[in-house]
């Protein structure tokens, strides 16, 4: 068994019809996937990236802010 992920415009009637036809063949079945919770390692990596971006942003804006104060 293999998994195929499809992305489509849910507002497109053509895309919905094509998906319905594909599922109607019986060769494929639809499975709703719930997003997984981030791992502690992913959360830590996100925090580190966020802190780095904020620090760099503060540094690059300091000259601009100093000129206008």
Account of the protein in words:
- The protein has 69 residues and is mainly α.
- It has two helices and no strands.
- It is elongated.
- The N and C termini lie far apart (64 Å).
- The relative contact order is 0.06.
Oligomer: single chain
Helix content: 55-70%
Structural class based on helices, strands and sheet pairing: mainly alpha
Total DSSP E strands = 0
* Radius of gyration (Å): 23 Å
Shape field: elongated
Show unreliable segments. none
How are helices and strands ordered from N to C?
A: HH
Amino-to-carboxy terminus distance: 64 Å
Brief characterization of the structure:
This protein is mainly α and 69 residues long. Helices cover 59% and strands 0% of the residues.
Write the layout of secondary structure elements.
Blueprint: H1 13-24, H2 40-68
Structure keywords:
mainly alpha, 69 residues, 2 helices, single chain, elongated
